[in-house]
């Protein structure tokens, strides 16, 4: 079963963990000094926050997390059908997890990722070069607009 993913950049991790714990009625399932994640069933979402000096605050990207390779193949097929540039990152470490993922941006510059988590990591990981997904139609300040800091620092 697929799970919606939303990643938000925050200025104060502790204050944000307190807020989202109250909002969701439960604490995060993963906490690190610069990151927290809630794997909620109702609503079914992977909600993550991070406090990174080089990242924008607010919604960084959205995505679709899958449970197995068959679902990943299905979602990858949908990315190709969207007829937009796809960044096939493949096996990577990001947000303290080992994953396989690809990225796409909608016509307005909203960055989406599709990924299968394959295990934990002790490091935050690398960031893909999402500026290759930039759209000429992306709003100024959109997360994948050319030249914006988030275009090079977003990670899931």
What are the salient characteristics of this protein?
156 residues, alpha+beta, 2,3-Dihydroxybiphenyl 1,2-Dioxygenase, domain 1, eight-stranded mixed sheet, 8 strands, disordered C terminus
Note the topology.
Blueprint: E1 3-9, H1 13-24, E2 30-32, E3 35-41, E4 44-50, E5 58-66, H2 69-81, E6 86-94, E7 97-105, E8 111-120, H3 150-153
Parallel strand pairs: 1-4, 5-8
Antiparallel strand pairs: 1-5, 2-3, 3-4, 6-7, 7-8
GO molecular function, one term: dioxygenase activity
Keywords: Dioxygenase, Lyase, Oxidoreductase
InterPro entries: ArsI/CadI-like, Cadmium-induced_rsp, Glyas_Bleomycin-R_OHBP_Dase, Glyas_Fos-R_dOase_dom, VOC_core
Write a concise synopsis of the structure shown:
The protein is α+β, with helices and mostly antiparallel strands and 156 residues long. 19% of the residues lie in helices and 39% in strands.
């Amino acid at each position: 079963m697929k799970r919606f993913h939303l990643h938000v950049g925050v200025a104060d991790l502790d204050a944000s963990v307190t807020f989202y714990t109250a909002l969701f009625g439960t604490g995060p399932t993963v906490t690190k000094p610069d990151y927290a994640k809630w794997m909620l069933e109702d609503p079914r979402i992977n909600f993550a926050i991070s406090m990174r000096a080089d990242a924008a605050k607010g919604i960084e990207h959205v995505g679709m997390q899958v449970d197995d390779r068959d679902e990943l193949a299905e979602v990858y097929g949908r990315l190709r059908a969207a007829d937009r540039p796809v960044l096939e990152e493949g096996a990577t470490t990001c947000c303290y997890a080992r994953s396989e993922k690809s990225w796409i941006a909608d016509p307005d510059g909203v960055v989406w990722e599709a990924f299968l988590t394959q295990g934990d990591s002790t490091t935050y990981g690398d960031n893909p070069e999402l500026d290759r997904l930039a759209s000429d139609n992306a709003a100024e300040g959109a997360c994948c607009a050319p030249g914006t800091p988030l275009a090079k620092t977003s990670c899931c």
